Amino acid sequence: TSMKMALPMDKRAGSFSSPLTSTSSTPNHFSRAESRLQVVSTSASAAPTTSTYQSFNDLKFEHTLVDTLPGDEQTEVFVRQVQGAVYSLAHPTDPMKDDQSNMLGGRASKSIMDTSVGTEGNNGNGRKLPPILEVPEPKMLAWSSKCAALFDLSPTEGYDNEEAVQVLGGFKVLESMRPYAQCYGGHQFGSWAGQLGDGRAITLGEYVNSKGERWEMQLKGAGKTPYSRFADGRAVLRSSIREFLCSEAMAALGVPTTRALSLVFTGAGVVRDQFYSGDPQIEPGAVVCRVAPSLLRLGTFQLPASRGDKELVKKIADYAIDYHFPQLKQYSEDADDENNRYVHLLRTVIRTNCELVTKWQSVGFVHGVLNTDNTSILGLTIDYGPYGFLDEFDPSYTPNTTDLPGRRYCYARQPSVILWNLLQFAQSIAFLTGIKPAERELNLYRTYFDECITEQWRRKFGLRAWRENTDDTLMEQCFEYMENYKVDFTLFFRNLARLPCDEIIKMLNSKNAESVNRNASEIESVSESVSAEVPDDIQHSVISTLKDLNILFEDNLPSDVSQTQWVQWVIQYCHRVVSDLSNQPGDSNLNRNMNPNPNPNLNPNPNAVPESDPYHTNPTTSEWTMQSRRDVMNAINPKFILRNHYAQKCIESAANGDTGPLLLLHQILQNPYDDIPRDINGNVIGEDLWSDFVQRPGILDKRPGVCVNSCSS
Fold first, then answer.
1. Distance between CA 557 and CA 422 in Å, rounded?
2. pLDDT tens digit sequence for 295-334
3. CA–CA distance, 494 with 79 (Å, rounded to integer)
4. For helices 298-306 and 310-324, what crossing angle results, to 10°?
């Protein structure tokens, strides 16, 4: 198995098998011409003009899910099994009525957010509440101007309008809202968990904006629902900050995701045992407003299927097609038709989730809780819990403390887990698609994944086209060295674009190093060339360049062997890059291209915002230069990502009443591919923090609660 498959699919995770897997030869419906198809993109719409802004108070909501699908007949909110329904009505409840600040001895009891020792206002524990809780009043902590544009709202509406704070904090609802919690089930860590549902998420309604796009608005942490089980329906500040920041950061990275409109501090305290260690503590409560075209999950289909309710499964599928994949209505509903609308639905869900996970792998994102109830039918990143981004390259990295023993959801296994999740979805609708068509579509996942992930790696390495044999070997060796020597994933690829490959080759030639030149360009494995002699001055120069550009650091080069390995790899990589300069448009070796533009006639969601593709260059038609290589690499390798220790600093500052770091980091993360981040007015932002982004996290940034988190939120 080649590294472009083995790395993400994880050759250590075992092979995939299922009762819906066949080996029959079938046409590849995932054609390369359609490879950039996006069912939905959640990048922000262009902001409306000032004259079209409206007040948050005047938003009018629709309710297609509530109007179309069966709901729970019981209207009282108490924990129960809900049969034959897709939702239960559930109203947000005043957070202050559920204030838990007194549960551990009063508002001056100990808190996870404050480690200071004080003598005033404490309860004998010597620790006080976070300063933010000392003034228990709701406050808008953060507002996404880009997400606000999806609702035709002004960039500052959330800060200017107290009504918005009240509604988005869960204290009241607008007249046109009909709040509900969705009913679904799911597999958690590979085991069927039965009914789950929105235990603390309440959907307020659907807004159709001036562009005709439909967006659901949902509050996370707004109170109990029939699906809260043993929980309180609330959310804490630390997890809410993490969701707000990452939702908008992922959108800016070009990764399909739910969005976050706002982050409201409720003024109430919430008790949580973060590490399930028997040490509950008081934390500030908060509510995030989550936004998406739809929040339907694979688990929405699984629960009624598990109960034998085929009629409800079909109703959900028809609703999804009518409102989110309307182009599929042209196909028949006949179960005997191997290409009916439900087969196309399955194919589309497979496609979009396959594309999603390749983008996760590309930016080093690890979801952490990739259960089937956390997998969107639209191929969106959903439910930001104990997620994380790779710091040093470690395929086994998982950010979830609960996942540490088996690492089911680690970086390398995400593509395999998505396939497993899609199998569960296919089984749920198999009576609509037929078994053989479902098997056929599932068997296409690996082929399509191979195409998508190869295109990601081509761009990340800055290659004009992918050469199957030599480039697979080059990449495999690179990832092996990155793992062995704990190389920072983001810094390596971002700064690799700055490597002067043409100058290094010129230096080799000018030093009469023809033997090294020849050996490095002809070997099939870099490891075979380790013993090749490299003049000391050349090796020293290459190593110095790698350090100067922050591609590698001193501890990535711990020995003479490691330095020789990296020098040999760099020489081969530079030869490969320079060879692209001589192979101009029309050359026969351009064997791996992908159409950058989705066919608009195939786009299943008319409400989708077209995804920009700023880093595309078509290698068959574009002239390829060192500058175009750098442009391609800098447009897919971000400079700014949401490292966990940055989020932690924002959490600690916000708990102390200072939201400055939170707002500044949010702004910087809206420009992840820019060398110099600027605000919407073109002003440089966060200049004093840039040096932090070119440094790796320190040892204290790898402690529990920072680099790994629990599901407690």
1. 41
2. 999 999 999 999 999 999 999 999 999 999 999 999 999 9
3. 49
4. 160
Q: Give the residue from 257, 262, 183, 282 showing the smallest Cα distance to 219.
A: 262
d(CA 144, CA 158): 9
Residue 518, pLDDT score:
55
Give Cβ neighbours of residue 135 (< 8 Å, ≥ 6 apart).
267
DSSP state, 686?
-
Asked whether the beta carbons of 33 and 599 are under 8 A apart, the reply is yes
CA distances from 554 to 140, 238, 491, 548, 640 (A): 44, 34, 14, 10, 22
Residue 619 pLDDT > 60? no
| pLDDT tens track for 489-499 | 999 999 999 99
Q: Is 34 helix (H, G, I), strand (E, B) or coil?
A: helix
Q: What is the pLDDT of residue 678?
A: 81
**CA 639, CA 669: separation in Å to the nearest integer?**
9
- The residues pairing with 625 across neighbouring beta strands, listed in sequence order, are none
Q: Using an 8 Å Cβ cutoff, are 578 and 624 in contact?
A: no
- Which of 508, 518, 536, 353 is CA-nearest to residue 442? 353
Q: Which of 72, 64, 71, 82 is nearest to 319 (CA)?
A: 64
**Among 14-28, 70-84, 368-382, the least confident range:** 14-28
Cα angle 290-294-298, degrees, rounded to a multiple of 5: 105
Res 559 pLDDT > 70: yes
pLDDT band at 597 (very low <50, low <70, confident <90, very high): very low
Residue 117 φ then ψ, to 5°: -105, 125
- Residue-wise pLDDT tens digits, 217-261: 999 999 999 999 888 899 999 999 999 999 999 999 999 999 999
What count of other Cβ atoms lies within 10 Å of the Cβ of residue 104? Answer: 18
CB-CB contact of 395 with 7 (8 Å) = yes
How far is residue 98's CA from residue 251's CA, in Å, rounded to a whole number? 33
At residue 618, the pLDDT reads 55
Q: Which 8-state DSSP code applies to residue 22?
A: -
Q: What is the rounded average pLDDT for all residues in the chain?
A: 83
Q: Give the C-alpha separation, 354 to 356, whole Å.
A: 5
Rounded to an integer, what distance in angstroms lies between the CA atom of residue 88 and that of residue 586? 59
- Per-residue pLDDT tens for 443-493? 999 999 999 999 999 999 999 999 988 999 999 999 999 999 999 999 999
d(CA 38, CA 41): 7
Burial of 72 (0-12, 13-18, 19+ CB in 10 A): buried
Report residue 468 as tokens.
């199957």
pLDDT recorded at residue 11: 36
The CA distance from 504 to 378, in Å, is 45
CA-CA distance, 660 to 314, in Å (whole number)? 49
Active site residue 373: yes
The Cα–Cα gap between 692 and 683 comes to 20
Helix, strand, coil percentages (3-state) for the chain, rounded to 5, are: 45, 10, 45
Beta-sheet strands, E only, within 237-391: 259-272, 281-292, 365-366, 388-389
- Residues with Cβ within 8 Å of 286's Cβ and at least 6 positions away in sequence, in order, are 141, 221, 235, 236, 237, 240, 241, 263, 264, 265, 266
User: Phi and psi for 264 in degrees, rounded to 5?
Assistant: -115, 125
Mean pLDDT of 350-378: 97
Choose, from 10, 114, 152, 373, the residue flagged as catalytic.
Answer: 373
CA distance 39 to 505: 43
Q: Which secondary structure element, helix H or strand E, spans residue 606, and what is its range?
A: none
The 10s digit of each residue's pLDDT in 17-41 is: 444 543 333 333 333 222 222 233 3
Q: Specify the residue for token string 């260059």.
A: 617
Amino acid at 162: E
CA distance 542 to 570: 8
CB atoms inside a 10 Å sphere around CB 308:
9
SS3 (DSSP) at 370 = coil
Beta bridge mates, 297: 376
